[in-house]
Amino acid sequence: MSSARKFDARPKVAGTYRFLDDYNNIEMMHGLLFYARFDHGIISKIHLPPDFNLNEFTIVHASDIPGQNLVPEPVADQPFMADKEVIHFGQIILGIAHHDKKTLKDFSEQIQVEYQKQPATTDIKQCLEDEKNCFGKEILINHNFTPKSDPGCTYLHKVYYTPHQEQAYLETQGMIAIYDDQKKSMFIQGTMQCPYFVKEAVETIMGSAIRQVIVETSEGIGGAFGGKEDFPNIIAGIAALLSYKSGKPVKIVLDRSDDIIITTKRHPARIEIESWTDRISGKIRKLTVDYRLDAGAYQTLSPVVLARGVLHSFGTYNIEEAQIRGRLFRSNTPPNGAFRGFGAPQAIFAIESHIDHIARELGIDLADIRRINLLRKGDEMPTTQIIQEDHIKECLETVISWSDYYNKKARFEEFNHTHSDKKGIGLAIGFHGGGYTGNGEKILKSEVKITIDKDELVKIYVANTDMGQGAYTTLAQIVSEALSYPLSKTIVEIPNTDKAPNSGPTVASRTIYIVGALLQNLAYKINAEIPDNNLSSYIKNHPGQFPREWKLQFQPDPDIRFDDNTYQGTAYKDYSWAACVVEIYYHCQIYQIEVKNIWNVLDIGRPVNRKIAEGQVEGGNIQAMGYALTEFFYKPGFGRMHGFTDYILPTAFDIPEINIEFINTSSPIAKGLGEIPMDYPAPAILNAAQHALGRNFYELPLTPENIFQVLKSSHNTKIAQEDN
Amino acid sequence: MDFYKPSSLPDLFEIISRLEGRKYFLAGGSDINVQIKNKIITKEPVVYINHLDELRGVRDDGDQIVIGALTSYHDLISSPLLLKYIPFLSEALRYFASPPLQNMATIGGNLANGSPTADITPLLLVLNAELKMMSKSKLRIIPLNGFYTGYKQFDMKYNELIGAVIISKKATSGYRSYYRKVGSRRSLTIAKLSLAGLKKMSGEQIVEIRLAAGALNEYPRRLARIEDYLTSRIRSELDWQEIESLLSKEITPITDLRSDSEYRYQVCLNLIKQFVLD
Question: Are the C-beta atoms of B107 and B119 separated by less than 8 Å?
Fold first, then answer.
């Protein structure tokens, strides 16, 4: 386990690393996405402002699209630009370009859209309540479920809600398109997670009008968290169209408020759980989960989020009889999309909260209820996948003893007897399947490439991007270690679809787990081909053999099967496991929860770079803390957030002590890491709040206002005044 | 929109006495630049003043501390004079804004912007701070307590400028002080509400009390009715229902993206109680 320093840390601090908006040329026009400010309507006329010289502008509309007006997605139902009908606020109507940014902005602000208003569903909670908003393919998993009730069991039926979450990457979305009329080729450069997705999107919108699309990322990508998985497709498509029409390079960089308003968010969820638990043993006999996501106005990639959510909704528990249903709901809001965790944070929030409610109902300790029901080696998931390891048990026991859980719990309860401020301790466990769901990796067939030059540089070609998570450092480290070759001479090339093979998108905690493993195997292959096993001297002695290129493609394990219809089989080959304890302090005067301490024990297999791995856990924890306590995007009656003044992210002052331990570190496999630290802290915070306040909560975020409402509804408005 | 950059303080007064109507003074720019960007300020002249160093700095003036209007929050936080005489103000200032804003934003600009959520105003109100209003021909000292007359409405003429804030060195001697800013997080947050207080006790009797609330009215305000009720009463004999009903006449909390009216009201009451009974 090395902790090689991120090679990009220094240039980023010094400001020399180039992000998208640092790329300029004199010819370049600025592009802008003009979008609807209404929820649902039929456009009758677009009035362009009269006081401008229209010849200076390039304007594109759906009717200018030479190819197809559908963004390629798992379900391709979203147009790049609305033609007649707008079905969500923020839907793009026009792409506009001009040489001067300010003129462009002034112009677009004065455009008037005339439309006939149509009925719209914008209240997310209401949307998820009403089954007539259901759309897309339903998922149903039935595992030995019998509807008959069991007299020895306690029945518990609860509904859990989670809100939107904004990715809040530091660098907003942006794309440059440069059209070459002679070659009929389009060069795209941007801030993105998935260069090959962008390539397909540009090919789709441009159709036969162009012959070639090359996509390259900017040197730096200032955060993404899933937000740059699919939205870049749209900006790239429209930027390409503007460049094609104007014949000039076009750069679109969203400003913060546009970015927040129109780009994808984490799906709000409504998750209804029924459980039948044996009163004596505490064993959960039966479970039903009704998992609903608000997809927004289009399905796009939501079916995939739904799949992962459903496949994590039963938690890390061994349940004999389970019935799980997953459905998407349509609202007149921007399509929701990928965000770190991808359906799992919602699922794990609901199941972990529910487990706590069962424990409270039966008077069982939070750790014990988990011990009783934990998935152990040899147990079967509702998908019939057999568990091969007992690492979740080890995570749980380690975090309990390390955090001094039992003593703290007792001490806090003592404190709470004599204080009006309260302390609470909470516990949650979680898991996250690495890589694409089900047959995804089999279909993707990722490929990687390594070249070695005469100048002794080992170059790694992948389509995966470093968006700040340290992928280039970690991938280079994997290759350098496998080749026993200096890290300083091992580099990852900036992803470019003309040079790097398609190693798949930078999503699903798959970059190190899948792509890293491919690179490691390729490096071993190179090692095997270099006779004296000393690469440096071999290159010196055999200059004629270089430059040389090696490639390797993903080979699926033939024993692994998954049925996309019944959801039976191996949904994920390797799971990461984690257990977490959270300590909170409740400020009674202001109804506010402060997180004091988080303990994480994780099995991510082998952490390739310990510092980077810890950074991922810390970042995930903080993002989860915001999710649990302060972040919400939409307030009924007040609409959506427009910026970071109102959308409240944690700042450095809010960050608690974060303790991290990895188990199973001598494993040969580096499993998924990026997402799991986001999955489990929110329910741990919620159940710490329940411990502190002796009240049940079912909904995130636990803002002071929401806590105040819950306490008030239990006739307890005077809680703050009791012991003064 | 016309911009002006006076060459000196007399030149400034010359310019502003010549320009008719409302005008904006650009100091640190942390509010004005945003308002220009958001097209809230479009026509009115903008006069740049941040280079007029006569208006900057915390000065010892006998039994008073005089804070120049252009003094930045950073300079306030690091002022030994403030730390010595009004330490609770120095302490509270640390939780205002971000370091870049603390470096740029000025006390005069903060007061003249007149935001209902301005963090420093409730503190200055309980300190009985005064404002030195300057114009070409006149200088007047007014209590901050009378400066605000409505939402972004001031007792200030178009040819006037806030020159300085004056605080007595003895403003807190003999008093217990209180300040609590309630925001969505610990830093970089706009107050949902805030409460500042000073009180003088004689045993259990409240001899004198001053309370000022932020973000609960159109402008930060003293809670005069509650102060009147509390003054000279015995702490254990207070009628909190009476205080609650007085509070409902004193504040008008709103529901917005940031918080809810009911929450703001209850928390304000909780904080008053905490301070009074502590």
Answer: no
The answer to whether the pTM exceeds 0.90 is yes
- The alpha helices in A110-184, defined as continuous H runs, are 124-129
Does residue A552 come out as left (phi exceeding 0), alpha (psi in the -120 to 50 range) or beta? beta
* pLDDT tens by residue, A575-620: 999 999 999 999 999 999 999 999 999 999 999 999 999 999 999 9
* Cis peptide preceding A701, ω within 30 of 0: yes
For residue A705, the chain B residues in CB contact (below 8 A) are: 259-260, 263
The answer to whether B273 faces chain A, any CB pair under 8 Å, is yes
φ/ψ of residue B221, rounded to 5:
-145, 150
Distance CA B181, CA B190 (A): 9
Residue with tokens 């002679």: A182
CB-facing half-sphere around the CA of A674: CA atoms within 13 A: 26
Q: Could you give the CA distance from residue A634 to residue A124 in angstroms, rounded to a whole number?
A: 9
Which domains are assigned to chain A?
25-119+171-262 (3.30.365.10), 269-436+568-717 (3.30.365.10), 446-553 (3.30.365.10)
Interface residue of A105, A257, A589 to substitute, partner B, most B CBs within 10 Å: A589
Instruction: Fill in the amino acid letter for A145.
Output: F
Amino acid at A146: T
Is residue B267 within 8 angstroms of chain A, CB to CB? yes
Find the DSSP H helices in A214-301: 231-246, 256-262
Token pair for A135: 């759309």
Nearest to A2 by CA among A627, A610, A572: A610
pLDDT on residue A2 = 76
Residue type, B160: E
Chain B, residues 143-202, CB within 8 A of chain A, namely: 180, 182, 184-190
Residue A111 CB partners (closer than 8 Å, separation 6+): A34, A46, A47, A48, A49, A94
The CA distance from A403 to A429, in Å, is 14
Q: Residue B117 CA to chain centroid, in angstroms? A: 9
Q: Is A647 exposed, middle or buried (0-12, 13-18, 19+ CB in 10 A)?
A: buried
> Residue A56 in 3-state DSSP?
helix
Radius of gyration of chain A (CA): 26
- Chain B residues whose CB is inside 8 A of the A650 CB are 185
Is residue A268 pLDDT above 70, yes or no?
A: yes
Query: Which residues pair with residue A603 across a beta bridge?
Result: A577
Q: How far apart are CA A631 and CA A652, in angstroms?
A: 16
* Mean pLDDT calculated for residue range A290-301: 98
How far apart, in whole angstroms, are the C-alpha atoms of residue A104 and residue A209?
27
DSSP state of A562: B
- Would you place residue A147 in the very low, low, confident or very high pLDDT band (cuts 50, 70, 90)? confident
CA A660 to chain centre: 21
With CA atoms as reference, report the closest residue to A234 among A446, A31, A423, A438: A31
Q: Calculate the average pLDDT of chain B.
A: 96
Instruction: Give the residue carrying structure tokens 């980023």.
Output: A12
Measured between CB atoms, does A708 come within 8 Å of chain B? Answer: yes
CA B50, CA B106: separation in Å to the nearest integer?
9
Average pLDDT over residues A511-517: 98
DSSP A574-643: -EEEEEEEEEEEEETTTTEEEEEEEEEEEE-BS-SBHHHHHHHHHHHHHHHHHHHHT--SEETTTEE--S
What are the φ/ψ torsions at residue A682 (nearest 5 degrees)? -60, -50
Instruction: Note the residue count of chain B.
Output: 278
Cα–Cα separations (whole angstroms), residue B270 to A638, B79, B182, B274? 27, 32, 12, 6
Rounded CA-CA distance A7/A12 in Å is 9
- Please state the φ and ψ torsions of residue A29, each to the nearest 5 degrees: -100, 155
Mean pLDDT of B50-71: 97
ipTM of the complex: 0.95
